[in-house]
Amino acid sequence: xxxxxxxxxxxxxxxxxxxxxxxxxxxxxxxxxxxxxxxxxxxxxxxxxxxxxxxxxxxxxxxxxxxxxxxxxxxxxxxxxxxxxx
Length: 86
Description:
By secondary structure, this protein is mostly helical. Helix content is 67%, strand content 5%. It contains four helices and two strands, in the order H-E-E-H-H-H. Strands 1-2 form a two-stranded antiparallel ribbon. The model has no long low-confidence stretch (mean pLDDT 80).
């Protein structure tokens, strides 16, 4: 379970953007499958899908910020600590 929770960390600290984007994906899947299995229509589904699909935009913004401001000039990415490589 700890390894799964480590997916939500950046640099050893929990990342709000990773948590929010995952929550968006999970909400989209649960609601979509629920509506499909119950055979229901929801008039505001397109708005819901757009809002939860915004999780992709959150992740892209996160990657831009990390690349632009959190990675030293000329480096490919963040260095992994020995503990994180295992």
